[in-house]
Amino acid sequence: MAHFPSNTELLILGLLRDQAGGMYGLELVGASGGALKRGTVYVTLMRMEDKGFIKSRVPKKAEHAGLPRPHYIIAALGQRCLEAAQLLTVRLVGA
């Protein structure tokens, strides 16, 4: 059973929620405003995929030279966890 996402995982889920086409790891680092680091983002993404929060896919058409970069998209479980975290925050702050 998956645990509730950490703050870092919630940040990634929030970034992915707004990108239907997905994002690759370094895009997430850039979009995070410094909250995510290059050295740990892929470890976190692999852990999140193992938990079922996100899914990865390799685009069929290469966007650049070199190895294909997987794009990460939010999974249904990740979406539900993100919504639950937002509701909890609203209730705690609004109380």
Strands side by side in the biggest sheet: 1-2
Q: Please report the number of helical segments.
A: 4
Q: Quick one: how many beta strands?
A: 2
Rg computed from alpha carbons, rounded to a whole number of angstroms: 14 Å
- H/E series: HHHEEH
Structural class, judged by helices and strands?
mainly alpha
Q: Provide the low-confidence segments as ranges.
A: none
- Our measurement of the CA-to-CA distance between the termini, rounded to an integer number of angstroms, reads 30 Å
Shape by Cα distribution: elongated
Largest sheet composition: 2 strands, antiparallel
Q: In percent, how much strand structure appears in the residues?
A: 5-15%
Helix content: 40-55%
Mean pLDDT: 87
Structural features, described:
With 95 residues, the chain is mainly alpha-helical. It contains 4 helices and 2 strands. It has a two-stranded antiparallel ribbon. Helix 1 (7-17) packs across helix 4 and helix 2 crosses helix 3. The longest helix is centred in the last third of the chain and has 19 residues, at 76-94.
Offer a quick outline of the entry.
The protein is mainly α and 95 residues long.
Which secondary structure elements does this structure contain, and how are they paired or packed?
Elements: H1 7-17, H2 25-31, H3 38-51, E1 54-57, E2 71-74, H4 76-94
Antiparallel strand pairs: 1-2
